[in-house]
Amino acid sequence: MAEPLLPESLQHRPTKLELDEGIQKAKETLLKKIRRSVYVYRVDCGGCNGCEIEIFGSITPVFDVERFGIKVVPSPRHADVLLYTGAVTRAMRMPALRAYEAAPDPKIVVSYGACGCTGGIFYDNYCVWGGTDKILPVDVYIPGCPPSPAQTVYGFAMALGLLEQKLYAETTVEVEGEQAPILHPRVPYKTRVAIEREARAMSGYRYGKDLANQFLISLATAPGGDIERGMDKLIARQDDPRRVEVFEALRRVVLTGEAHV
């Protein structure tokens, strides 16, 4: 083996580049869940072109959002993300709506820049409607005058997360004549109301509802219909004294009707 011309200490060894954890997660999301590139269509509703310069800076090699599979397309019919820049002028209102209607579902609307978000310094101009959300349902706002490429990349990452949710969303449609089942039908209505009021008074609306549900399940599933035994077993399983206090108060509501409210 030939001897190197330079000693090891003087030879250049390039440092291996490692992906940032956030970048790696974004790529995994795109490749494993969305499984295709995401196409962005830009709609200029009436701005100064400062935002466009930053968008072009984001897609050029320095920031290169295309490494995430995010590509700018020339037609809204191919777009997953609609990127609206500039204040919505009266002249651009209908073209902006037509671009939205032309994009296939599911689609994400991104309002870009101060003018796109609020109308900016032109908000009270005679020919300006305001921000994008005056005419369209906006999913992601990227503020700034103009936003930096780093803000743009972050906003696109937020849009990717929303797009994944919309792609895999499940919609439940109520069948004609269908009725929602009543929770805990075996517990009398007045008792259910009293238990929920007491639990929410002691633990807040959301957490109190969860505790009331647990307590009502213990009543409905009490072995042999022995509700006192069911309540005692539920209280005995708790390792948090605050939950014990709430369940004991609910027990008093059931047995004596006494409550704090």
Question: Layout of helices and strands, plus pairs?
Answer:
Blueprint: H1 21-34, E1 38-44, H2 50-59, E2 70-72, E3 81-85, E4 88-89, H3 93-102, E5 108-112, H4 113-118, E6 128-130, E7 140-142, H5 149-167, H6 189-203, H7 205-220, H8 227-236, H9 241-256
Parallel strand pairs: 1-2, 1-3, 3-5, 5-7
Antiparallel strand pairs: 4-6
Describe the structure in your own words:
The protein contains 9 helices and 7 strands. The protein is α/β, with parallel strands linked by helices and about 260 residues long. A 5-stranded parallel beta sheet has the order 2-1-3-5-7, sandwiched between helices. Helix 6 packs antiparallel against helix 9 and helix 7 packs across helix 8. The radius of gyration is 29 Å and the shape is elongated. It starts with 20 loop residues before the first helix and ends in a 5-residue tail after the last helix. The model has no long low-confidence stretch (mean pLDDT about 80).
